[in-house]
Amino acid sequence: MQQAERLQEFRARYPNRTLTVNGIRWNYRVCGEGQRPLALLGGGLANDLAFDLVGALASRFRIVYPAYPRVETLAEVVEGVAAILTAENLTGVSILGTSTGGAVGQYFVRRYPERVERIVLSNTGVPWVHVVRKRKIIAAILSTIPWPVLRVPLARAVAKVLGAPADARPFWQAYSKELFTDCLTKADILSNLRLQIEYHGRYHFHAEDLAAWPGKVFIIESDNDPVFSPERNKALRDTYPQAPVYTFHGAGHAPAFSRSSEYLEVLTRFLE
Q: What confidence tier does 266 reach under pLDDT thresholds 50, 70, 90?
């Protein structure tokens, strides 16, 4: 089955559910037939990007896969995820937090440690105040560009950062174009940037934060991640000194797409 067909099957099989939390409407998918609960906290605003990964995990996990709504604070995101897990009666959750989703996961396990069994932090980082100024400049610039103009380079950037193999690039280029044409708006992009600015400017995570938590942390990183530098990777490792680390070589920011088979093997080992 081709990727486009697998995506359509995923969307049909796992339609979005909705939940209103503190006046904010959330869309999320519940996927899989397994018993173990897994919260898939992605880096973007779409909750079908990782459809192939979900398909590979579906037999072993009950996966909650939310799309982040437009909110002002990371706390609102975490409260929304917690409400979804409560609505679906899921406890003892494993978390996969990728990119920005890793920020959500790190705050979630500090806010609700009793609800989390383990967390995999994949190509993500701890708060890094040095990026706040740059993020603010980017947000200011993007806010002035008309959406029909802005969405074209954004779609190209997403397709590029996935780093998919050559034979899959046409699919991901089409997917990214559809994402920014039919699904997302400039308000969504600016909201996501505000969350990043708040995360890096407000929060501070330390190695001792989870000293009393009996769960486990695992780290997946890439040695050439264009988003997270070696210095930022080290800061994440230093924050979780007991965490096993798997380093991809030359896999970029999204090894789940650039090295999908290896990523699945590593992730499964950590989750099991």
A: very high
Does 44 have pLDDT greater than 80? Answer: no
The answer to whether residue 235 is domain-embedded is yes
pLDDT reported for residue 220: 98
Find the domain containing 230 and state its range. Answer: 3-128+205-271
0.85 exceeded by the pTM?
yes
Q: What integer is the mean pLDDT of 224-241? A: 96
Does residue 200 fall inside a structural domain?
A: no
Work out how many domains the chain is built from and give that number.
1
Using N-to-C axis directions, what is the helix angle for 186-202 and 132-144, rounded to 10°? Answer: 160
pLDDT at residue 43, as a whole number? 85
- 63 falls within a domain: yes
CATH number reported for the structural domain that contains residue 72 in this entry: 3.40.50.1820
The model's pLDDT over 209-224, given as tens digits with 9 standing for 90+, comes to 999 999 999 999 999 9
pLDDT band at 272 (very low <50, low <70, confident <90, very high): confident
- Assigned domain for 194 exists: no
